[in-house]
Amino acid sequence: MFSRPAARSSAPDDPQASRPDPASLLRLLRYVRPYLGWLLLGILTTLLSAGLSLVFPKLFGNLIDASFLKRAPGGVADTGPLDRIVLLLLGVFAVVAVFTALQTFLISRVGVRVVADLRRAVFAHLLSLSPRFFASRRTGELTSRLTSDVSTVQTVVSSALAQLLSQIVTLIGGVTLMVLTSFRLSLFTLGVIPLIIGTAIVIGLRIRRAARDVQDKVAAANASAEEAISGVRVVQSFTAEDLERGRYGQGVEASFQASLRRIRLSSSLAGIMTFLAFGSLAGVLWYGGRQVLGGELTPGKLVSFLFYALQVGLGVGGLTGVFSQVQEALGASSRLFELLDTRSDLPLPAVPTPLCRLSGRVRFEDVSFGYGDEVGGPTLSGLDLDVLPGQTVALVGPSGAGKSTLVSLLPRFYDVTGGALTVDGVDVRQADLEELRAQVGLVPQETLLFSGSVAENILYGRQDADPQEVRAAARAANAEEFILKLPQGFDTAVGERGVKLSGGQRQRVAIARAILKNPRVLILDEATSALDNESEALVQDALEKLMVGRTTFVIAHRLSTIRGADLIVVMDAGRIVQRGTHAELLAEGGLYKDLYELQFRAEDRPVRMQAALPGA
């Protein structure tokens, strides 16, 4: 019995690999270093703002004493000290407001700048990884790392940093001034601080784990949604909307439950801290009131002490909030640095062999290759193939024979696991990877266009090409005519993945892109198998123009695309079982003839009938 489809998992292969590492926050300092001047200026304004805030309690205490204790001779109230203190308070308030605004701007600016750099660094590193990495990761999970995880880190780099500095200054200054105001009352008040800090640490650690779980569940839900949206035609064609709604709903519900657990912990922490804070305040009022009644304190000093105690309490509460934010960012930054620390399985040579303009000779020497999860042996085994410059080689064979795997070794999407693959005598593992790929062109069956204009998609082949070269490439690909009929011509947006164009149109744009690239080695991976006859004729004509003078590897299921090949290589179970021309292989018999009888004979019959007609 088959089980019902479950929500897709996006958990990494190695759960230990993404364990939160406190050192990951320290690594953020490397991204802060270029903006150290801005940060130091922000820190200075933070310190000044926090320091001036410690003046308020003293001035408020003086205000109280000036209001109730000081009177002019004859019992008439003396309002002069009161007026001066109020004016001084307003002046301090204004200065603190300016410093607070500067602090927020400066540190937030550093935060968003660091996050932008980090996001760029992660994305650039992802592009450097091989297809093997992406085969085990889902796109939605990776985009979640670039969005939600980086945003979580931004909170720490910007606002949390300012809060941390401000609360530290407030705590140190507040405790010092409390002691100077009343030593005995300070001992009474500070006795509760260890309890507050201990509570914050215990619950904060649980918040950290809960926050990490939330991020993982959100990433899983995003991955499910991205997969369904990108394949919406398949979803709708199979009327699987309810299935995908259910899958995404399960992911959203899981993230909701995880968020609920985090909210419960955060709410508990907030409630406990509130009780401890106000309970401490009540205790201070009781004990301080007794000192005022005993003449040990003035009412103004008690008010000042209460403000200092409140600032210290808020400082401790603020630190617990920062601690919670740090715990959340710890998991996020660990996942980001896990991605940055992922090394490509395509090691770059210390001193790469430069590739000049290739002539196009390709040799497979006893090549073996395996993805690592095969059952029954490697995908390719013992391949020997020598392709001369300018030759066209057609690869045929049953599904799963290894044809696409073989050509994916040419641009070094994967490394051979045995033997050697050379281009113009240079082992591709020793060549500069960008130089190699710059001279290898690929036209796949499933053409991927990006969501820009037609011209931008063609320019993907060579970014510095001028408009005349773009039009020439489109003309050579039999694409110019239909492009000029589009609403904005070459500036027409093609939609996500080129959805606004037909299959044949997308394929011709892809061919124009390859023509503009002007590669020496060309790979055509079933480039016409999904097209109707009219589109195929146009695409085939464009491909023939593209193939002229280039070493070309063609994977095809249609006889028309391989009949004129210089060499036909027949593959089965990862090995080359036959090679030769079309006529030679038919005469030889074997697998090629069987494939011809199954796939190509009906296609070949009209051609032979046409050739038999008088005058043909």
TrEMBL record:
It is a multi-pass membrane protein. Signal peptide: none annotated. Pfam families: ABC_membrane (PF00664), ABC_tran (PF00005). Residues 40-328 form the ABC transmembrane type-1 domain. It comes from the Bacteria. The chain crosses the membrane at residues 35-64, 85-106, 156-179, 185-207, 269-287, 307-326. Its main location: membrane. It is found in: Cell membrane. This is ABC transporter transmembrane domain-containing protein. The keyword Transmembrane helix applies. It comes from Deinococcus rubellus. SUPFAM superfamilies: ABC transporter transmembrane region (SSF90123), P-loop containing nucleoside triphosphate hydrolases (SSF52540). Residues 1-20 are annotated as: Disordered. Keywords: ATP-binding, Membrane, Nucleotide-binding, Transmembrane, Transmembrane helix. Residues 362-598 form the ABC transporter domain.
